[in-house]
Write a sequence for this structure.
């Protein structure tokens, strides 16, 4: 029987332990890094965090899709009703730049739709977590030793987005992926709003900005993979937002044959 609270607890513990290990590498004067076949960077922190997360999630009965795993072929995956989708270190470029804007992303997907989302920000010790079914998203501040003070799911930690300001639109822009399509989107919005404000963040923190009311919309017109977005989508959906595919006009779906996402907007 599916136990939402237990699976969410496991994902939270996994994200925090992975975050602590990531910081151990991050705080060194130097660390091992290389380029993968797709030319994206890979560090020892990615691999260590992935191993830690796998050790937690393997205790559950659900299979895992991770950026750093050798993932099953779709002929097997297509039969999965439930699966974890993991990015052990989202924002490796930000990690290498040492700007702190990287995260641990863990989501549990049911029939292609995110149900649980956890995003941990190791440098700031901010923990975002959500249940889509319960329509509740939270942000909890951990102490300097990465301990949770008090209880999770406190009403005071609920994410409640602010009302939009009339004639002003806050648009999330990427630290590393602002392209012409995005610039054109921003220019078009200037026809409808007196003021356009660009809010820049790296990694899945862009989803969090919208979820907690620090931005109004996040257009992503550049390639992303399912592990980049699943946890952020769960948090946004629980907070009352959608992550709309530019291809289908519906929320992004997961565990697809091709794990590459279409372009999308969070709004």
């Amino acid at each position: 029987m599916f136990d939402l609270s237990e699976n969410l607890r496991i994902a939270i513990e996994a994200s925090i332990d992975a975050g602590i290990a990531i910081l151990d590498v991050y705080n060194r004067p130097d660390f091992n890094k290389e380029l993968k076949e797709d030319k994206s960077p890979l560090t020892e922190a990615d691999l260590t965090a992935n191993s830690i997360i796998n050790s937690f999630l393997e205790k559950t009965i659900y299979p895992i899709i991770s950026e750093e795993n050798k993932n099953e072929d779709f002929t097997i995956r297509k039969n999965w009703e439930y699966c974890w989708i993991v990015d052990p270190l989202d924002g490796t470029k930000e990690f290498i730049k040492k700007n702190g804007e990287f995260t641990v992303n863990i989501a549990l997907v049911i029939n292609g739709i995110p149900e649980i989302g956890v995003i941990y920000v190791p440098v700031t010790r901010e923990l975002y977590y959500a249940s889509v079914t319960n329509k509740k998203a939270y942000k909890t501040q951990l102490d300097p030793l990465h301990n949770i003070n008090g209880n999770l799911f406190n009403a005071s930690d609920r994410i409640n987005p602010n009302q939009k300001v009339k004639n002003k639109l806050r648009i999330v822009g990427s630290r590393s992926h602002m392209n012409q399509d995005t610039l054109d989107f921003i220019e078009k919005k200037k026809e409808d709003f007196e003021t356009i404000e660009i809010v820049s963040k790296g990694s899945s923190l862009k989803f969090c900005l919208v979820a907690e009311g620090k931005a109004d919309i996040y257009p992503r017109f550049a390639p992303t993979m399912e592990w980049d977005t699943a946890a952020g989508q769960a948090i946004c959906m629980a907070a009352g937002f959608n992550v709309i595919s530019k291809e289908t006009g519906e929320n992004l779906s997961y565990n697809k044959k091709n794990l590459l996402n279409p372009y999308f907007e969070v709004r």
